[in-house]
Amino acid sequence: MNGPRVAVVGAGMAAARFAERYAAFGGAGKVTLYGAEPHRPYNRVLLADVLAGRFAPRDIALPPGTARVRTGAEVVRVDAAARTLALADGSVHGWDRLVLATGANPVLPPIRGVRLPHGAGLAGGVHVLRTLDDCAALARDAATARRAVIVGGGVLGVSAAHALASLGVAVEIVHQGPHLVERHLDADAAAVLARGLARLGVVSYPGSRARAVRCRGGRVSAVELACGPGLSCDLAVLACGARPRTALAYAAGIGVRRGVGVDDALATSAPGVYAIGDCAEHDGVLHGLATPAWEQADVLAARLSGARPSARYRGSRAPARLAAGPLQYAAFGEVDEDADPGLDVLRLVDATRGSYRKVLMRGDRLAGAVLVGDMTAVDAIAEAFGRRDGPATGDLHHLLVPG
To answer: Of the candidates 242, 260, 243, which has an alpha carbon nearest to the alpha carbon of residue 251?
Structure first.
């Protein structure tokens, strides 16, 4: 096959999107995805839905276009000068263009008792939720669990709590932040979300820090808090965020800040090497969301395929979203009016329906918005928020109540 050899390190959401779009754009050459997992690409965002039984693993598969997908192929070394990569099995493969889509690792908090002695993995009954294998292991334990503690009340923690509650497990969330999902929601919106969780039997403890995991018979029996009594459980889920996988790039001498540094062309400091998705840092920003990863993949596929060689990635204005059964929210841009007294705010709260809607304007531009429970306005707000030029609207109420 004529054309460049395009190697993609990783076979996750960003990698699959790049490969699919590269083929759709008519890119020449051979694209190969090297994935460390034994599974072909899948939609990681839907893992909590797989845990809850709403989807089977095959239902969340992602198409990689015409690319070859090598599963169980962990890349252990990249040589940017020689344009080769080495796999854990000892084989070495050449490339003409390299795309780093290595994703991120779950953060393990400094909690005593989380790990087994001598670094032999997590204690029995303690889980993370990042891969399909993580999901399968958690589902097996959840089948016999009675009480679970989620450490971390961000997007993943809330999704995992909802999934476990739907399986009949009593769930408690321990969250160090001032309120749930504080990166995306204000305090009032988080309170509405917490009440929705409570209706499902999920109890939240914001402003609380997990100090240690107690085990009995080799399995978790309780999570100790820094202040207050411990929480008894037979299942614990660590949902404390993720950290970009940058070790390969760093060892190869490729520029790394918090993530792998890229410019508007998604190019790294090494010629012929690019980065997209959770591992990529663009203009000082790590997105860690699916939509920006796909937008980056689209731009890079357009460039490398030759369909749009001058395509540029200018950053993303994608919302943070959660859709877990009856629990739904969307957050756009700035959500805290206290941080900028120059913002105009309109807020609509319906305690009966458990909904919360707020838009924040700076002049005639939409600066941010939060929706919890009622998503009827999400399309109108997304359209207004996506405009980079020109006024958004002259009517705040119209954004919250379309029509």
So the answer is: 260
CB contact at 8 A, 65 and 23: yes
170-175/147-151 β-pairing:
parallel
The torsion angle over the Cα atoms of residues 98, 100, 101 and 104, rounded to 10 degrees, is 170
- Inter-CA distances, 53 with 50, 136, 150, 158, 245, Å: 5, 11, 19, 16, 29
- In the prediction, which pLDDT does 119 show? 67
> Both ends of the chain: CA-CA distance in Å?
54
pLDDT score of 398: 67
Instruction: Tell me if 87 sits within 8 A of 97, measured CB to CB.
Output: no
Give the three-state DSSP class for 205: strand
Taking the CA atoms of residue 270, residue 22, residue 306 and residue 74 in that order, the dihedral angle to the nearest 10 degrees is: 20
In the predicted model, is pLDDT for residue 371 greater than 80?
yes
Contact of 34 with 85, CB cutoff 8 Å? yes
In whole angstroms, give the CA distance from residue 389 to residue 398: 19
